[in-house]
Amino acid sequence: MTFCGCFIGNSNTMDRAAGQARLVNFRLLYLITQLIGAFLLLLVISWILIHLNGLGYDYDKPKIIFNWHPICMSFGMIFLYGNSILIYRGFRYARKRSLKVTHATIHGLAFVFTVFGLIAVFDSHNYAVPKIPNLYSLHSWIGILAVGVFSCQYIFGFFCYLFPKVKESFRIFYMPIHVFFGLLGFILALIATFMGLTEKAMFTMKNYQDMPSEAVLVNSIGLMTALFGSLVIYLVTEQSYKREALPEDAMLLTGAQE
For residue 197, what pLDDT band results from cuts at 50, 70 and 90? Predict the structure, then answer.
């Protein structure tokens, strides 16, 4: 009995130590992800200000209007979307109800930036002389698909998990679907970003193959996007990093007072 007790005690101690080690690893990777995301946004802003003549919304300068598109989409569909996906694991000790609201709020902000980014690109095409056709490239098709998936899963998720009258059994059933389409929308956004960067580089740089400074910057933006997206996907799919349920979560499920 004494031996068994010691063995169980040592096993529990080892499990706790392993859990702490996993948490340290997660926090380190989470921090690296945030730094890469911030650096990505800095690179996009630098590209716009240094090589694409800055920002503005003068209909006589449609090329300047376009510049809002990469900034808004990078901030909304990449940085905010990725952080919204990670919110439950990044703030694992916060109350579930607070995390739900924060998750929905970040998604909402991402949606606002995305809508403005789409308006900007349509205006830049429609006010160009001559007009530039809309939605003709594969980049635009994949981009619209990404926005559509993102918007639908946001709406369905909002009503399913924040609307009080939805049955818990349906929430449990819908959760894997919500997670799948949330991650799918993010992956589609990454693909659309790579296509958009290449398309813009081909249109604006006649000597792209000679690797001028703008080409290096655009390729660096693509590389940082790939690193940020890969880390987000890894952190949100690695089962050992999953948030463990708190006592308050059970109270929330049963409808008890918090």
Answer: very high
The whole-angstrom separation of Cα 108 and Cα 105 is: 5
Q: Distance between CA 148 and CA 144 in Å, rounded? A: 6
State both tokens at 211.
Answer: 């690797």
**pLDDT, mean of residues 224-250:** 88
Burial class from Cβ neighbours inside 10 Å (0-12, 13-18, 19+) for residue 5 reads exposed
DSSP annotation of 60 reads T
Place of tokens 């990725």: 82
- What span, in angstroms and rounded, lies between the C-alpha atoms of 258 and 248? 7
> Stretch 27-54: mean pLDDT, rounded?
97
Nearest CA to 69 out of 106, 123, 17, 19 is that of: 123
Structure tokens at 19: 């859990």
d(CA 193, CA 188): 9
Helix (H, G, I), strand (E, B) or coil at 242: coil
The length of the chain, given as a count of residues: 258
**Cα separation of the two ends of the chain:** 41
